[in-house]
Structures are given as structure tokens and as C-alpha cells.
Amino acid sequence: MLVLGIESSCDDTSAAVLENGAKVLSNVIFNQNTTHSKYGGVVPELAGRCHVESIDRVITEALKQSKTTLRQIDLISVTVGPGLVSSLLVGINTAKGLAYALQKPLIGINHLEGHLLAIFLHEEVKFPFVALTVSGGHTDLYRVDGFGIYKILGRTRDDAAGESFDKVAKMLKLGYPGGPIIEKKALLGNPLAFHFPRAFLEKDSLDFSFSGLKTSVRNVILKRDCGESPVLSDSDISAGFQDAVIDVLTSKAILACKKEKINRIVVTGGVAANNALRNSISNTANSHGFKTFFPKMEFCTDNAAMIACAGYYKSLKSTPFNKDALFLDASATLSL
After folding, report:
1. How many CA atoms does the CB half-sphere of 17 hold within 13 Å?
2. pLDDT per residue as tens digits for the range 230-273
């Protein structure tokens, strides 16, 4: 089965062609970093416009790289939420048009399910496993018992981890996207130069909260700039902030495994590309006898290959009728 995946939930326009759920024939991603960098974050209206301008050529390039044609595609899989409505609608309406014109089956996919299954693009993980999804918009813990069988264990109560990286980078005037920039700065800093707070919440809670940490960073920067606190470099602040985030993420992931009595952890999402996070969770998990799995770097950030993968497995359980193509709609807060 050849699946055409389309992803446009935020600021990455992506199309991919996947064979039988695992063989990636192409995975084209066009990011909008240049457009949004001057604002220090994603501007929804601009993101939607950029998707309109790029989606046709991204799909064309994905087909070209995979050496396939639209007529050869057996299924079209598209993200329907959660995400920015202005962005989601571009991908959905494009997928609808293709499905209607070509009379191809179309299936809508939850963006978070795509992240959960991204690991299966290059590695099989036995069920059940605990999944930590960490991205710009989401920080969630799931128990995954099979394809389509998910139980939410914990989620962020305010800012997501990735969003906090972007906001701290903006406070330090380092640029956008913040995750990779903070990670590089942190390598040059001392994480012990300042101890930022860790919000573990009530005992045994698997929820997350990063708003207090973000506020603490802001206060430290303001005091530093006014000469009211010890001299801290941008690198020191970045290192201390990153260390606080990773400490909480690692602790919660390990706690989830203990509570669910599961010894496998899958860490996915854009922040899963952070090497310090990978090392922390891997080392801590190993000390407890747990196994850790991470998608390849290109499958951590938003991409259409993971949407095609989720569409493939979802289609095995239900027949995506052509008529569904006319009724799919975007949902900014779609739950999994």
C-alpha cells in the first residue's frame, strides 16, 4: 500500500510517500523559520499563507523523490488536528481536493498519534510502552497498548516544554526556533550557575507545568540586566533552564513506567531531538532497567511520514470511504 501523507498543523509544510506503513520513499519538509524568526514565534495568519504558497510544490517534490504518481497512491492521510486552524485547513482542503478528483480514500489523523507512531518508521517497539510526547504545543505522557489504543497519563497544565524553549530564547533575544538555539548555548554554559525551580506538582503527579520556570527565567534576566544579581551569561541561563526542563521530563517519564509497570519508554516530538534530553532519559532509564526508544531526528519534528504511518495503521482497522473526504474538518484542540 502506498500512502501519501500531508502535514500542516503548525509552521512546517510536509508531504511524504510511505510504503506498507514503514518504508519511507520520501519525506519532504518545508519550514517557515525565516518568516517567523523576526517575531520570535509562529504567527498563525502568516503560517497559513506560507502553507498555501508551498504545499503544491512540497507534494510534487515528495512524489518525485518517491518515483510515484498520484494515480499510484492507494490512500491519502492528512492531519486534522490539533494545531493552528489556519494551517490545518490548507492541508485538509488540499487532501480533500486530491481525494475527490482522483477518487482515492482519505483518512484524517490526529497529529499526536502521528508522533506516537513515528518510532515505527524505522524500529518496531513491543506493546505496551510509555510514550513521552514533547513538542512546541504538547507535553504529554501516554500508555500505548497497541495501534489506536492510547491512555493519557499526564499532560501539561500550562506551557508545553517546546513552547518554553521558544519563549526563553525570545527573552534572551537569541532567535527562533528556540529549542536548537538554547541547546547550543547550554553546551557553553554552567547548569549549576543558577538553580531554576522544578515544578513536580503534587506527589506522584504525571502532569507538567513550565510557566513558573519561564517566569523565574524572566526575573533572573531582568535582575541581571539591572545589575541586581550575580553575573550570568546567556549560556549559563540557557544551561540552567534546559537542565530544569530535562530534570522534570526525565523524572515524570520514569515515574510513569513505575506506576504502569512498563519497562519501555518512547520519547517523541520536536524536543526529543535534544541530545541532552536523550542522554538524560537513556541513562536514567538504564539505571532502572528500562529500555528507551527515540525516533530518528528527521522524524522528531513535524513531518508527513509519521502522518502517513498513522494513516496506514488506522486504515487497517476501518475502511476510509471516499465520501469522508467531503466532511473532514480542522480541530484546533482535537484530543487523542
Report:
1. 21
2. 789 999 999 999 999 999 999 999 999 999 999 999 999 999 99
- Choose among 107, 112, 111, 142: nearest CA to 127: 142
Residue 2: which pLDDT band, with cuts at 50, 70 and 90? very high
Round to whole Å and give the CA distance between 74 and 287.
Answer: 45
> Which cell is 295 given?
525516533
CA 181-51-56 angle, to 5 degrees, is 125
| pLDDT at site 315 | 92
CATH tag for 2-116+302-326 (out of 3.20.20.140, 3.20.20.70, 3.40.50.11480, 3.30.420.40): 3.30.420.40
Q: Are 186 and 244 in contact (CB under 8 A)?
A: no
Cα–Cα dist 63/55, whole Å:
12
**228 — pLDDT class (breaks 50, 70, 90):** confident
Longest CA–CA span in the chain (Å) reads 66
Q: Single out the residue of 268, 264, 258 nearest to residue 302, CA to CA.
A: 268
> For the chain, which residues make up each domain, given as ranges?
2-116+302-326, 124-294
Beta strands in 111-217, from DSSP E residues, in sequence order: 129-134, 139-146, 149-155
Q: Collapsing DSSP states into helix, strand and coil, what is residue 27?
A: strand
Measured CA to CA in angstroms, residue 183 lies from 2, 76, 278, 295 at distances of 37, 36, 12, 18
